[in-house]
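Fig. S4 source data, part A: sequence.
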Amino acid sequence: MLSGPEPVVAVVVRTRDRPLMLERALADVCAQTFPDWELVVVDDGGDAAVVDDLVAARPGLAGRVTVLHNAESRGMEAASNQGIGASASEFVAIHDDDDTWHPEFLARTVAHLRETGDAGVAVRTEIVWERVRDGRLEEESREVFAPEARSFSLAQLLRSNRVVPISLLYRRSVHDEVGPFREDLPVVGDWEFNLRLAQSQCPIGFLDGEVLAFWHQRPEADGALVNSVFARARDHRAADLRVREEALRAHVRRHGVGGLLYLTGYLRTEIDHLHNLFRESALRQEELLAGQVQAREAQAELGRRTEDLVRRLEERLAGLEAATSDASLVSLLRRRYRRGKARVQAAAGRRRRPGRPAG
């Protein structure tokens, strides 16, 4: 349990039966260069003894960690709200048990919020592709997540979530304006929270440049080690549609369906037009390719005929040479043969030039 002044940052770690991940997450928090933090671990229906043992094995957590055990899983967003409610810090960070930070994450994000007065700040983030082999985590590759992002943008959030929990530090007071995480959403609760945040009067900054957060993904894992975005893809699609449908209905209640009907019809017409243009372009491309194939076939046939003609001329000349002993006549025949051969080959060369198919 904690005692003394409230820490500046509360780090909430949600976990359930993933000791391999939780051990890494605990080490990650302890490695932060910013010292004024508290940790709340929410064990959402997992093995309590395993969680307690992992926490106890970290001397750096002594006196600054609270562990909450749920006998049954309440869900990710309920775990977030539970952890936030068990702390009283100025700033809040949701640190999923399978993700990590740069050691300077808290130091730089806290400094930004202190300097700007922003309500929150997101950071440049990297996806870390990894797999589990023989009980160990092995990194396979990395890529920048949402490289086009330069701000905490509602326009981009309307398409999909561009700020995952590990990427964001925000003021606790944000919840007074936008409310808690929605516990009725089994997944995409972080996206829905970000949508409310982006529509509020809360300014959210963005730290571009060096990557400060790492979103770990394991598409080939199974069981407790898999990411929800892969294991619960159907739930993600259903929850995504639910959030959009709710927002659409709220919009229609205020403004009616007229504008949306017009926009939907206009977009359908434009999409059909683009589809037709694409189809026509594809047909023209097929015709062009067919013509090129025919031209290449004609050129190949011309080459074969030219070679056959030259061969027969050589055979005829050899026969004439054998039939006469007149050296001057043989020389004349040779000169005329060479001129004739050159003309045939030149004509064949002109026919093979690009843009001049054989006819």
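Fig. S4 source data, part B ends here. The CA atoms of residues 20 and 135 lie 8 Å apart.
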